# Entry
Amino acid sequence: MSKQIIEILKSPELIIGIILFAILTFASYLLKKQSNKKTNKRKQAEKETFYNCLYEEYKKIPLLKTYIRIMTKKLSSTSVYGKNEVKNLVAKYLTATMICVVEATAISLVVFNDIASVILCSLLAYILITRMIEKRMAHISYIVYTQLKYAMESIRLEYMRCHDVVESLEAATYGNRIAKIMENIHAVLISTNGELKLKEFFESTPFKPIQTLAYVCYSINNTGDDYDGNVGNSTFIEALLIMNKDINQELERLDYQFMKFGKIEYLTLLPIPAIPLIQWFLLKYMPGTSIIIQGMAGYVIKIAIILSCIYNYDYISKANSMHVVKENDKILLIQNLLKNKSFLRIIKNITPKNKKRRILKQKLENAFS
# Structure
């Protein structure tokens, strides 16, 4: 019995689980330390310069361009980071990811004697650390939603006191994540070229609820507020209440999603450490299965199980993220293929012409109407 337990503890699958747990613990500590560490202004400036240079060096590597583009877009969508801050964070996250993947690869090279286990261990480490980073970004978006909710409530109370949009923005209280954004909105309202400033604000702040708030404040400040003659309700106050209601619904949805499915993606990884236990059970009570388990078929089955676990974890964690609905739902592979002249020529040749084309177009328009 003790010999069988030792065999289970020495199994590659269990070792993979231990390695990844150690790497994720280290990565989580590293990311938390980077976000909470306080330094003086000089050291902070030196670090920012270093990470900016590192970001530029990373951009020169073709293999990292897609990762940098995706992470930059996701960080910019929160609207709480400037351009330099986004570059610093991308460089930090990319460095942490590379450290974890390199560590996983180095340890697996020492532990395992086959290339498949090394590749799977490195792949799983990359996916896990990437999802951890995405969850951190989702948490920032949640904080922005929460602070924006209380900011609009504060603006509403101040507006009821002074009946002036600019003054209410000046007197309202804001959280640290959106304080700079609210200063930018205030700058738009007092600017002599407000329309141009508003367009620039929209380009630099892609967060939709903040864009809506900025547009409402700009419109009311320019055209004046309207009041319902019967009830005396203010248009500006009604707009703030509606926006606040939408944000409350979004926060409730996110809370419910986290409560129900917050950790469900980790269930998909349980079969990996369970493989040696199942293998031990079958070998003990069904010795005839040793021909399959200890042969090539058993090796292929184990690799297939680990691959399916990795795929299911990646799929479920993506579906459970805040960014599950994409702004652009076009398939990247198809878009890249359409840039190829030969492929585009083939598509044009097989595309329906004349009457058939009109019928197909009408069917598509009816389907989406």
Observations:
- The mean pLDDT is 79.
- The two ends are 67 Å apart (CA to CA).
- Residues 356 and 362 are 10 Å apart (CA to CA).
